[in-house]
Design a protein that fits this description.
By secondary structure, the chain is mostly beta strands. The protein is built from one helix and eleven strands. A hairpin with a 6-residue loop joins strand 3 and strand 4.
Length: 164
Amino acid sequence: MIKKILFGALLIPEAVSALPYSADMTLCAHNEIMVASCNLDEKKNRTLSFCSDAAQKIMFYRFGTALDIELEVVFSDKNPVSRWVDIATYTTFLGFRIDKYTYTLGVPEERFGAKAFLEITKNNETIMTRNCQENSFGEKKLTNTSIFEVDDSKVRNNKFIFPP
């Protein structure tokens, strides 16, 4: 059973999660744009993906496997996902909060050997950190109305708490 979270008043049909996924280990549907994706370095072999609809108005976060999506979150302009580019490391962070939990994907500068990572916190305490097996950089600079751009100074001046 998919745990589906919908932010805002936007209704998305359940058929979204039934769309076929491509074979390159992303949980984005064939008609979506992969913003970032990560195959976790773990025994469960789970993947997380941030995907944009073709109109670049809605973002999706999916976590699990192609046969078992454990969590799907839909973002809109009223309740966007946050994106921050750390100017010191050129790492792009995509993140969001659900109740006491924070989900953050860090996608480092595109260079040989660089690997993305996932961090999940509860009440600002890390409960899970996983590295990606390799990077799937995707369109991490994609413009989408459901992405809130967080200024680097805002994160730095707030003890690096992200998303704000």
